[in-house]
Amino acid sequence: MATIDQFEDHCWKDLIPAQDIALYAPYARETYVGPRPALLVIDLYALAYRGGSGSPYELDKTHPNSCGVFAHQAIAPTKRLIASARAAGLQVFYCTQDVRPHNRPPGAFSTHRPLPPQTAEDYAIYPEFAPQPGDVVIYKQRASVFQGTPFLSHLNLLGIESLIVCGEATSGCVRASTVDAYSNGFHVSIVEECTFDRSEFVHKSNLFDLHHKYVDVMKLDEVDAHLRSLADVRSRAAE
Questions:
Q1: DSSP H/E element including 63
Q2: Peptide bond before residue 237 is cis, with ω within 30 degrees of 0
Q3: Burial group, residue 40, by CB count within 10 angstroms (0-12, 13-18, 19+)
Q4: Among 103, 195, 200, 234, which residue has the fewest nearby CB atoms (within 10 Å)?
């Protein structure tokens, strides 16, 4: 849990003007991981990592969907988050784009950005985060994991009340999914170090807005500590 005094202690401090911080001050509150959480891993598919860890600006012509360095620097913290979630016994959900034959009508896109036809290999979960037995993979046609999928039904049947979220892109599928989660009554925690976009400016500005209005942006250390406490409870219950 982070106190009200720590509410603005995040990556956007070098971007958001002081007058805007003051304007949004009424949103300040304690942040925390909510009850009965699940982990949602958003769009960590192969395309986001293509071309290596260079600048997305330089990679854009050859790899137009790559997040470059921002994707690659999030690999280690995201692996840590997923491992902690598994140790705590959380249900892990992945989502990715649906390219199965006859399963996606023409015009059903996540955004208006035109892209060449993509394949199942393009949208396969990046090997560093390969789903494990018992994980659920949701295939979606739009930006939000909630739209036109069984995701909400899964959450309701499992008694999930909160989501811990990582993935990409902050301004796109992460934003759409977390706003829908909030709108459906779930408490949402976005893990700062495990979320990214193609633009650092867009990433930070969207995190700032989401944090104040809809979600709790939290540091990995905070979330990891909470998950370790859940794992300890689980271990004692099994003795």
A1: none
A2: no
A3: buried
A4: 103
